[in-house]
Design goal:
Layout lengths: L8 H4 L9 H4 L19 H13 L4 H11 L7 H20 L9 H15 L10 E2 L2 E2 L3 H7 L12 H8 L9 H19 L17 E5 L7 E5 L2 E10 L2 E6 L9 E4 L7 E7 L7 E8 L7 E4 L7 H23 L3 H25 L11 H7 L3 H13 L15 H4 L6 H8 L27 H26 L4 H11 L1 H14 L4 H16 L6 H19 L18 H33 L4 H20 L2 H13 L7 H16 L19
Antiparallel strand pairs: 1-2, 3-5, 4-5, 4-10, 5-6, 6-7, 8-9, 9-10
Length: 689
């Protein structure tokens, strides 16, 4: 069932388009030999040629297109410095939106050439713009041009991952995009979509797929690239299939595959997918497996992807499985309706198509896989909640009962209109069915996430998150640079960094030793005076304000001076055996501290449960006395008494008495027994199959 909607004026201009793109891509000469009888004076010659080709595709004259742009676009887009680029974007977007209605546009070389030329024209739209940058004597496309044009075609790029896609395509060309690479990427994308549309393998028809379930990837059909499923200590080869709802594993029997086991990624069963080590008989030897765990399986399932070098197969499957899983988690968390759910899954499906195409065309590194997938990238970026909230706000504007289409390419929020599920419709027009009924016009213009001379809020959030991520990576690089090896070396670094505090503690200890009676007395009286007059409360605020002033002065007057490296004298070099002995000594000291802590707690337990009644009575009396002190004495006087008692222990007049009471206290503590402890061995009843 298809619901009809009202078309806009711009859409009616396109109704008499030819049935094929090839006929409208080739220019027709006029009688005087010119390619176009009219050119826009504000545009460069190259931009004019692109607009002329767009006008032929849209079956609209250049004058009419400019008139529609002038009448429909905001005044802000018509400023002299932005008019040429805004007009070019307007014509390019409408052309790409119109092309999206075809099922075979990716296979048309003229489409690929025109899309690339749109990017070239975007970089030099006006007559006063600088010439295009060149690499190897050929015109190339930059990041911003790619990010402004490519997302207008839903299959080519996603607004969230478009910058990472550009980096993957230009990793070997000085971050400038060549046409040959762009053409190869689209041809690879077209092959991936065609293979998926017609079934990756005929044998996948044996799977009992649910309605709207699409096979996205199959692995394990080649003898040289098997997939092993490990459960307990058993392992069995088979075929692995991923769809937009689940993944299936079919064990290989005697020449045939057994019945597939389905692992549903859309169910809320506390599912977990992560990389894991595996090997024969349960040995953890090879880092080439994916672990799946949920409440629906008794034991974790390990899927191993053996290969001689690296773990690229495993990483690829890990990322695409996580993309589907995280898309379903986003759907369940926000309780989306059927159309919104299909839109989210379509976005994830297109991401998997692209990563497959880039992998085949450009052979990117495995670490870049997750950056090309929308939900995987969002998971790793700072501010992921803001990205998902912005994405959700767009999904909430999708109304399957009332949709207005507008070909102007203006921001939807400014016109207060409902949005169409552009990813779902694009997937449907390519021949995939996620839901039986789509309440939108099949030949509707698909208004994408890019708007004429405007910035999508989603793009703003993603750019900010990527900027924060870049700063975090740069900061992490400095952290990795200053890491040192060896316990003694790290202790030396820490000692030097804490030197000011160590000096302060040493000076306070000298004052408390009463070596200089006058200085120690003056410090004690000053501190007591500050406590009595309640000046102590300003002590911490003064420190914080002083630090803030110091940092501000450093920022204002010391920016031009680089931070000098902190000079630290490294300890003598030690061999591996000496370092192991040092480590053993440190571990022994830490173990002793933990033992002392446990003994303290066990003695407290013995006092609480009155193992020694006399000592328990004494402690109870002390606690009651302390309670009265805290209840009726001002807290500042309690602090002052504690300070005076601790500070004057080394005074000549009470030094001997202090040592005597400390010694008696230790003797009393030694007589307190520790509460008994009974260690029970862990009974592991888990049996491996």
């Amino acid at each position: 069932m298809v619901k009809k909607v009202k078309s806009t004026g711009f859409e009616t201009l396109k109704k008499n388009q030819p049935n094929t793109f090839r006929s409208i891509f080739h220019r027709k000469k006029t009688k005087n030999g010119d390619d176009s009888p009219y050119s826009i004076p504000q545009l460069s010659s190259f931009a004019n040629s692109v607009v002329a080709r767009c006008s032929k595709i849209l079956q609209t004259s250049i004058e009419e297109m400019q008139h529609i742009f002038d009448s429909e676009q905001p005044e802000a887009n018509k400023e002299p410095e932005t008019y040429s680029r805004s007009l070019l974007e307007f014509c390019s977007y409408q052309t790409l939106y119109s092309m999206n209605r075809r099922t075979d546009y990716l296979s048309d070389k003229d489409f690929r050439r025109l899309t690339y030329d749109m990017m070239l024209a975007w970089e030099c739209p006006g007559i006063e713009t600088e010439p295009l940058p060149q690499v190897d004597d050929k015109k190339t496309v930059g990041r911003e041009a790619f990010a402004r044009i490519a997302p207008a075609c839903i299959a080519l790029a996603d607004l969230i991952t478009v910058h990472n896609l550009f980096d993957s395509l230009t990793s070997s060309s000085s971050h400038r995009l060549h046409f040959l690479v762009f053409d190869k990427y689209i041809r690879s994308l077209e092959k991936v979509i065609k293979a998926t549309k017609h079934g990756l393998h005929p044998s996948t028809g044996s799977l009992h797929l649910s309605e709207g379930e699409i096979v996205l990837e199959v692995e394990g059909t080649l003898p040289t690239q098997p997939v092993l499923q490990h459960i307990g200590i058993s392992a069995w080869p088979g075929r692995l299939t991923l769809t937009n709802h689940a993944f299936y594993f079919e064990s290989l029997g005697v020449g045939i595959y057994d019945k597939a086991v389905r692992y549903d990624l859309g169910a809320g069963m506390k599912q977990q997918i992560k990389p894991e080590l595996t090997g024969p008989l349960g040995a953890r030897l090879f880092d080439k497996a994916v672990m799946y765990k949920s409440t629906s399986v008794i034991e974790p399932v390990y899927l191993e992807f053996p290969e001689f070098k690296g773990s690229s197969r495993r990483d690829y499957w890990l990322d695409i499985c996580l993309e589907v899983l995280r898309a379903h988690k986003f759907i369940r968390k926000n309780n989306l309706n059927e159309t919104q759910k299909s839109e989210v899954l379509a976005r994830a499906i297109f991401g998997i198509f692209r990563i497959h195409a880039v992998k085949d065309a450009c052979h990117v590194f495995a670490s870049q896989y997750r950056t090309l997938l929308t939900f995987n990238l969002t998971e790793s970026l700072p501010g992921r909640d803001l990205i998902l909230e912005t994405l959700l706000s767009r999904l909430m504007l999708i109304n399957r009962d009332s949709v207005q289409h507008d070909a102007s390419g203006n921001p939807p929020a400014k016109q207060q209109r409902q949005l169409s599920p552009i990813f779902l419709l694009s997937l449907s027009q390519l021949g995939f069915t996620l839901q039986k009924e789509i309440g939108y016009e099949c030949d509707a213009v698909l208004v994408g996430d890019v708007w004429v001379c405007e910035t999508n809020p989603l793009d703003v959030i993603v750019r900010q998150s990527m900027s924060d991520s870049g700063r975090a990576e740069a900061a992490q690089a400095t952290v990795d640079k200053v890491k040192v090896e060896g316990i003694d070396t790290n202790l030396a670094v820490m000692k030097e960094l804490l030197f000011p505090f160590l000096v302060l503690a040493r000076n306070i200890q000298i004052l408390a030793s009463w070596e200089d009676t006058f200085t120690s007395t003056f410090f004690l009286l000053l501190f007591c005076y500050a406590i009595i007059w309640n000046w102590i409360r300003f002590f911490l605020p003064c420190i914080l304000v002083s630090l803030a002033v110091l940092m501000t002065c450093r920022r204002k007057f010391g920016q031009s001076k680089p931070l000098e490296p902190y000079r630290i004298t490294a300890p003598p070099n030690r061999n591996a055996v000496e370092q192991l002995l040092t480590l053993q000594e440190v571990i022994t000291q830490v173990e002793a501290l933990i033992q002392d802590g446990n003994i303290f707690l066990l003695k407290i337990r013995a006092l609480l449960f009155a193992v020694l009644p006399q000592e328990t009575d004494m402690v109870a009396i002390v606690l009651v006395f302390a309670a009265f002190v805290f209840a009726f004495m001002p807290f500042k006087y309690i602090i002052m008494l504690a300070l005076v008692e601790a500070y004057t222990r080394e005074m000549p007049c009470r030094k001997e008495t202090s040592y005597k009471w400390i010694r008696r206290g230790r003797e009393w503590w030694i007589r307190i027994p520790a509460a008994p402890v009974h260690l029970v061995k862990h009974d592991d009843k888990k049996k491996k199959s």
